[in-house]
Amino acid sequence: MNEPPDDLASVLGPVPVPLSDPARRADTLAVTTRILHRGQRVRRGLVAAGVVVSFVAGGVSGWLVKPAAPVMVFNSPDPDIVPPSNPPTVIEEPLTPEELELRAELSDNPAETARLFREAGDRFLTVRRDYENAARCYRRHLSVADADVQKVSASDSWMLHTMKSPAR
Question: What are phi and psi of 16, to 5 degrees?
Fold first, then answer.
């Protein structure tokens, strides 16, 4: 049983792959490599340009917002004006919590010692948010203070109020 030859066998059958030309393969590799290297160089250039633009923009913005140099004006005293007879008022800097604690330790007056320890504790708590040192100063305040001062009052900080409360 011989079947007649199929007219579409050449179209529907597998297509024979021609042997590749080595010169064509080398050219394709060279072109592809060149395109990939060019893309890599472009990406590197864009990153470098972005870094340079960012650096220049930061420098320009820093230059534009820099503070003006202070102007020093020296006035020579007028010989006709008499300086005031009262001495200038001295403004004292507030003491640091450490200085207050040191003064409390050196004080001989128990009421003054208790006041200074409480003030040091208040400053540690409110200014520095240093809870450990504030608790130490409050404990020392309570150990030195009178019985009237050891009662809970409205002026106590939350930590001192907690330390004075009878539940403790």
Answer: -70, 135
Nearest to 124 by CA among 150, 144, 95, 146: 95
Distance, CA of 94 to CA of 154 (rounded, Å): 24
For 10-24, write each residue's pLDDT tens digit.
Answer: 788 887 777 788 898
Residues 101 and 160 in one domain: yes
Q: What is the pTM of this model?
A: 0.46
SS3 38: helix
Dist CA 32 CA 36 (whole Å): 6
What gap in Å lies between CA 134 and CA 121, rounded to an integer?
4
* Cα distance between residue 125 and residue 97, in whole Å: 10
What is the C-alpha to C-alpha distance for residues 159 and 141, in angstroms, rounded to an integer?
Answer: 13
Q: Could you tell me if residue 7 is inside a domain?
A: no
Domain total in the chain:
2
**Does 81 map to a domain?**
no
Q: Are residues 53 and 104 in the same domain?
A: no
CA nearest 111: which of 142, 146, 157? Answer: 146
pLDDT, position 95 = 86
Q: Look at residue 26 and tell me if it is in a domain.
A: yes
| Residue 112 belongs to domain spanning | 97-164
Which of 125, 149, 148 lies closest to 137 in space, CA to CA?
A: 125
